[in-house]
Amino acid sequence: MSLRIEDYALIGDTQTAALVGSNGSIDWLCLPRFDSGACFAALLGDSGNGYWSMAPAGEHRLLGRRYRPDTLVLETEFECAEGTVRVTDCMPVRDEHPDLVRRVECLRGRVRMRSEAVVRPDYGGIIPWTRKHDRRLHYVAGPDTLYLDSDVEFDLGDHATPRAEFTVAEGERADFRLAWVAPRAPAPRSVDVGEAISRTAGWWSEWAAHCDYDGEYRGQVVRSLITLKALTYSLSGGTVAAPTTSLPEKPGGVRNWDYRYCWIRDATFTLLALLNSGYEVEAAHWREWVLRAVAGEPSQMRIMYGIEGERHLPEVELDWLPGYAGSRPVRTGNKASRHWQLDVYGELMDALHQARNRGIPPEQSVWKLQRALMGYLEEHWRDPDHGIWEVRGGPRQFTHSKVMAWTAADRAVKAIEEFGLDGPADRWRRLRQEIFEDVCENGFDRRRGAFTQYYGSAAADASLLLLPTVGFLPADDERMLGTVEAIREELEHDGLLQRYRMGGDAPEVDALPPGEGAFLPCSFWLADNLIMQGRVEEGRKLFEKLLSLCNDVGLLSEEFDASSGLLVGNYPQALSHIALVNTAIHLHRMPGPVEQRASSGRSGS
């Protein structure tokens, strides 16, 4: 059984990432990219699926762990009767190939340590050939070649479990370095682990220093921005939703999805979080990734893409892995990539509009793309879709999706009105008004005084909290006040929100067994609505409750299970940290990112 999700910390090199447990074990690492096969997959199975442990050999306890300030260099301290040791872990921002370095330092006494380096390529499915050359281990399996260099001897008596036991006395240290190289590439040169750690810490500190948020939540904001940077594939600019797959939304359940891809849904939120924190370069790279990914016919646009813009993400079940807490199936790929989702057209149009507003120079081809998207949307905005939550039931007329079609039309009109671009402004104004009236007529329950999940239903949906944030209606409009109250009445549990109601007499929209935790981004969106309504202290209280759910090193997953008090879902979750940044800035200054986005559309309502 793996540790609790919140017991893991993240390290990464902006091309892939690892999860390091509070017990010193690295239980998840995909090489060489986020979406590659994992060579350590104990997170989704057991020790036979690969891990790299590092801890005192005898009875011991965790003394504490932390990141070095404003870095992604992790320090974990253990205490035992014989003394105290610190394990430092990081992944240097790569030059030639991915590296993971570890340093063990004795701070007090004399401590016997144990390390086991169980490499299992292809998501824990292959036992590699393992050879030993002096203090270097060489692992080979198909396309995967890894080298482990260390200051100590590993015993290969059991070739499946290379093991080392060694002693460090006060002031002594032992260094380790794991490297992946491409097939047929030469073996890596040795490195100075101490220099690699210092260089990595300096790189992250320099990057974090560009954050220009100086409010009371700066520590949490910087940690979230570092996490977002770590989840961004530096070669393309795409940000993965999470570095993991198949961490369950409910332990033992089947809602286990692969999140190692990039969602168009997150485009505007990501862009605004970066722009409002001082990271214009990253925002521009993200926009360029979006443009490359969606290039082509508007009818072929996807809701998610691979980290280089790949469109084919076939969903496969890994039947040899028992899953985290027995949650099966374990999946790679994501079938939802084939869904048609209306809201992504609005997200893309809005992201490009926000980039223009902030002076990111547009390419000449961008407006041509936007005009093509609008031509497609004019013909198809009335079509049912799978909605923002990518439900696996049949398509429906989701209210949020229609509002995002309105957003696309609104931003197209604004491009003409505010930037002088050429286009059929009158026609798009009529389209904008037609969609607005359609939503208010068919997506609003007059009896309840609230917008509903889809046309003809009475169900609440937390995505409707985004209506004022795109400027469809002011947050204090009577219809939005009623919507927020309906969402809280139906979806709020212990102060946090679920996405929509499941089970019982709830409408069957997703064709899956019920069961998930509170969806943390939705709860941040509720805080944003409260702030926009003028209920600032109530919004702040909710925001601080959400901050309290971060683990000891400041990380959030996708969801929170109030019954167990544990984080659930893929981890760490980019959208949760994006929402944290945007709400923190919203509380600190006006207009913040949420208000900026909302004000973009108000004159079109």
Automatic annotation (TrEMBL):
Protein name: Glycoside hydrolase family 15 protein
Record domain GH15-like: where: 217-584
InterPro entries: 6-hairpin_glycosidase_sf (IPR008928), 6hp_glycosidase-like_sf (IPR012341), GH15-like (IPR011613), Trehalase-like_N (IPR045582)
Source organism: Streptomonospora halophila
Gene3D superfamilies: 1.50.10.10
A GO MF term: hydrolase activity
SUPFAM superfamilies, per database record: Six-hairpin glycosidases (SSF48208)
Keywords: Hydrolase
Keyword Lyase appears in the UniProt entry: no
Keyword Nucleotidyltransferase among UniProt keywords: no
Ranges of residues in domain Trehalase-like N-terminal: 3-156
Pfam family, one: Glyco_hydro_15
